[in-house]
Amino acid sequence: MSDPNEFGSQYFEKILNMVDVGVHLVNREGTTVFYNDKMAEIDGLARKQVLHKNIFHVYPSLTHETSTLAKVLQTGQEVPEKIQTYVNVTGKRITTINRTYPLFDNEQLTGALEVAKDITSIVQLHDQILDLRHQLYQAKQKDGKKTGAARYHFSDLIGESPSFLEAVSTAKKASRTSSPVFICGATGTGKELFAQSMHNASVRRNHPFIAQNCAAVPGDLMEGIMFGTTRGAFTGAVDRAGLFEQASGGTLFL
């Protein structure tokens, strides 16, 4: 009868090669000891190009500060969720969301395990949208036009209930101030219509109105979207105005 441990390890490896997330296991020195098929697909590499090689050889664009595997090996602490953009040894640029865990044996750190989900295509599409928005911002800045436009006015809001009329009255008063305004309501109740109406009734009407759904933005990308990016700040970064700059003098609706 075969060794139960050997039998189990064979099936364990097969199972890890069937899952739809990348799995990357390194030892204490950062050398790859396991690298599943999905991780190879994400990286665009053959497993033999990665196995028994140091992570910095495979991913030369990463450093001890930017590599989640290296960070876990340094600190011995879990990195629960981190977006990581890197360039592999063939020059391919990849973005993943990683969960990285330290591995211990008798309280001694022996390695790190990373589970990665590929979001490269999502980030590329997101960057294209931001680039188009930035180009529009630059073109309209050059022409002296508003970057964004609010279509709706208070006259477009239709309703007769006392609570609705009270909300409109409060919004009109708020539009005459420069204070931040919190608009509360369930999905589909017209929060952006109120925001646009307030913008058009305010002294900011001739300046941009910018709306952004924050729930659609991954947490690690939020800072760059809000405050902009500078070329060279991180892998793939370009000079791009953030939403606060684009909405300068106007309204930013989040």
Kindly name the structural category: alpha+beta
**CATH fold topology of the largest domain:** Rossmann fold
| Strand runs, count | 7
Average predicted confidence as pLDDT: 84
Beta content comes to 15-25%
The best one-word shape is: elongated
Report helical residue fraction: 25-40%
Main sheet summary: 5 strands, antiparallel
Write a short abstract of this structure:
This protein has 254 residues and is α+β, with helices and mostly antiparallel strands. 35% of the residues lie in helices and 19% in strands.
SSE topology sketch:
Layout: H1 4-16, E1 22-27, E2 32-35, H2 37-43, H3 55-58, H4 68-75, E3 79-87, E4 93-105, E5 108-118, H5 120-143, H6 162-174, H7 191-200, E6 209-211, H8 222-227, H9 243-246, E7 251-253
Parallel strand pairs: 6-7
Antiparallel strand pairs: 1-2, 1-5, 3-4, 4-5
Provide a descriptive summary of the structure in words:
- The protein has helices at 4-16, 37-43, 55-58, 68-75, 120-143, 162-174, 191-200, 222-227, 243-246, and strands spanning 22-27, 32-35, 79-87, 93-105, 108-118, 209-211, 251-253.
- It is of the alpha+beta class and 254 residues long.
- The chain folds into 2 domains: 4-118, Beta-Lactamase; 121-253, P-loop containing nucleotide triphosphate hydrolases (Rossmann fold), CATH 3.40.50.300.
- It has a 5-stranded antiparallel sheet with strand order 2-1-5-4-3.
- The protein is elongated and about 70 Å long.
- The model has no long low-confidence stretch (mean pLDDT 84).
